[in-house]
Amino acid sequence: MNFTVRVPATTANLGPGFDCLGLALDLWNEAEFCFEGEGICVEIHGEGAEALSKKPDNLILTAFFRLLHQLGAPKPRGVRLRVQNHVPVGSGLGSSASAVVAGLLAARAWSGRDIPAERLLDVAVSLEGHADNASAALFGGLTVSVNTPQGWLVERFEPAPMQMVVVLPQFSLSTRSARLALPALLEHGDAVFNLGRTALVVEALRRGDLELLGRVMDDRLHQPYRLPLIPGAQDALRAAKEAGAAAVALSGAGPSLIAFPYQDPEPVAHSMQTAFQKQGVPARAFYLHSTPLGAQILG
């Protein structure tokens, strides 16, 4: 049995939707599984090829074997894993969620069992720690994830086709470090500020309403504490709006910023890159669109 799992990049939070909102993007990682021979062989190409583990503790394989263990399903004697990464590692574009979801879909396919995506999400959260990126990677489109006493609840919305630009500075900021920067307590007014805006961000993305998105993609729960950690990020956010972006936000925990331009994305990207470069930080630009597609098995 051989097959390839294809998983999209994702952006989370989207301003006020901290740990709740996720959006799938048309940038893809692919993991080709070949079940033959004995032992484990991992080959990685593209983004993170030098840094990512090629041993059994590779995150894709960790998720793969975690689900098989929970199912009590037999493990393959041999696994040949070939990974082609287009999603930058540690970028705020859901690279780890992509790896986890790839492993879970592969385990479901190998086991031959009809496992609902909701259960896959539970396993993904146990590995990721949060559901926003993983839910968008699994279901595609725009997702809202909420943890309830009965388990994770995900509502999927069909986003309007939208172009965006993601600018990734050459700066390392782990999700753990970004979370440690957050305060333990929040002001009541800040919570209220985010609540209404989160609902309107969903509606703006669903309708493709850039004017509305620009009015509501603000945050008081995480961005004020995370942006100062990234050299040039605050200047880049302001520069993007001045260059024609309707809205700008940290992508996930950062360090990348995602901007939604009214028209031509290149001036927006250039202005953001320039702002980072003034702080001595090179930055790459990715020109992307939202996608309704989630993770899938190819052949």
Automatic annotation (TrEMBL):
It comes from Anaerolinea thermophila (strain DSM 14523 / JCM 11388 / NBRC 100420 / UNI-1). InterPro entries: GHMP_kinase_C_dom, GHMP_kinase_C_sf, GHMP_kinase_N_dom, GHMP_knse_ATP-bd_CS, Homoserine_kinase, Ribosomal_Su5_D2-typ_SF, Ribsml_uS5_D2-typ_fold_subgr. Its EC number is 2.7.1.39. Its main location: cytoplasm. Gene3D superfamilies: 3.30.230.10, GHMP kinase, C-terminal domain. The keyword Nucleotide-binding applies. It catalyses: L-homoserine + ATP = O-phospho-L-homoserine + ADP + H(+). Signal peptide: none annotated. Residues 202-276 form the GHMP kinase C-terminal domain. Belongs to the GHMP kinase family. Homoserine kinase subfamily. One of its GO terms (biological process) is threonine biosynthetic process. It is an enzyme of class 2 (transferase). ATP binds at P88, V89, G90, S91, G92, L93, G94, S95, S96, A97, S98. Pathway: Amino-acid biosynthesis; L-threonine biosynthesis; L-threonine from L-aspartate: step 4/5. One of its GO terms (cellular component) is cytoplasm. This is Homoserine kinase. Residues 58-141 form the GHMP kinase N-terminal domain. GO terms for molecular function: ATP binding; homoserine kinase activity. Keywords: Amino-acid biosynthesis, ATP-binding, Cytoplasm, Kinase, Nucleotide-binding, Threonine biosynthesis, Transferase. Catalyzes the ATP-dependent phosphorylation of L-homoserine to L-homoserine phosphate. It is found in: Cytoplasm. PANTHER family: HOMOSERINE KINASE, HOMOSERINE/4-DIPHOSPHOCYTIDYL-2-C-METHYL-D-ERYTHRITOL KINASE.
